[in-house]
Every structure is written in C-alpha cells, then in structure tokens.
Design a protein that fits this description.
This protein is an alpha+beta fold and 191 residues long. Helices cover 29% and strands 32% of the residues. It has an 8-stranded mixed beta sheet, sandwiched between helices. The mean pLDDT is 93.
Length: 191
Amino acid sequence: MWPTTLIGEQIELRPPRLRDRAQWDRVRAENKEWLAPWEASRPKPPVSAPTGEFLNKRPSFYSMVRAIHREAKAGRAYSFMVWRDNNLVGQITMGGVIYGALRGAHIGYWIDRNYAGRGFTTDAVNTLTRFAFEELGLHRIEINIRPENDASIRVAEKAGYKFEGDRPEFLHISGAWRDHKTFVRVNELVK
C-alpha cells in the first residue's frame, strides 16, 4: 500500500521524496511568517526527560522523509506533500492511526499562502479522508484547529467535518499550550 499517490479533484497527494528537498526548503522559507502562528512547537522537557536529536530539535528533511515512510509502512501515520501541477503547495498528514475498537486518526495540514483560498486544502482533506475511510476502513477522523484560525475551520466544515467541542490547552503551538476546536467526521460505512 505504501508508497501510494492519491488524486484529488485539483491536487495530487504524494509521499515526500528526497529529491523534493529544494522545493520543500523554498516553500517553507517563503511561508515562515505565514505558518508561524499555527506551527507545532516543543515544550521545554523536564530535566529528567530522555534526550535525543528528535526530542530536542526538528529533524532534518532527510530524517523527516525517512520517518514518514517508516510510519506509513507500519500503518501508524500517512503524510503527503500536496502538489498542484508541478508546484508543492502544502502538506497533509493523517497521524495517530489506531485500529481495534477506535479505528480512528487525526489530520493536520498547512498550505502555501500563495495557494490559500483556492480550495486546494479542502480537496486535500477530502482526498485523504476518502483514503482513510475506503482503503483503511477507519471509522472516525478528527481535525483540531485553533479557535482563531477561521480559514482552517472553513476547510474542515467544507470537507464535511462537524464541530464536536473545545479542547483547552490541547497542543503546544507557537510556543505555548493552545486551545483547539475539534471537528470530526465519521465513516458511515464502518459499523
């Protein structure tokens, strides 16, 4: 099943490749300020916490690509670069994949500001949700969004996700524990 490419209405979702580094570096650099308020950050660990490269700093592009492929092959997470024609326009990840009684996951994404507002993110969410429901047989997917991120809330709603509730201090984002709104979509085919 992995690597796999998913085709949306306007975009293509492809697993990252090592040769994508130049485009990745360029897009991320151009969007640093645009993405900063929404970026996951790492809280300071207690002195007794384990140490290691992954715990203390962001992985290199190469380490990220290797980790993405390892997690997908194990069925724990699926991360794709979002492409429009030959342009890298974002990234979407379905992580925390759990089978058993839950059969669920969560989705996170970002988009290049030059491509925002064109429906590409909604298309990516719909495409990944379809993969999760039809190919993986997942029952429940959630998207957690900062309350002030109106554009991302619109994406979730347009993709058929329903507001479920608030999660106080849910994720460490942009240097602090931030509240989130949870949106959920349930696969009616899984009973």
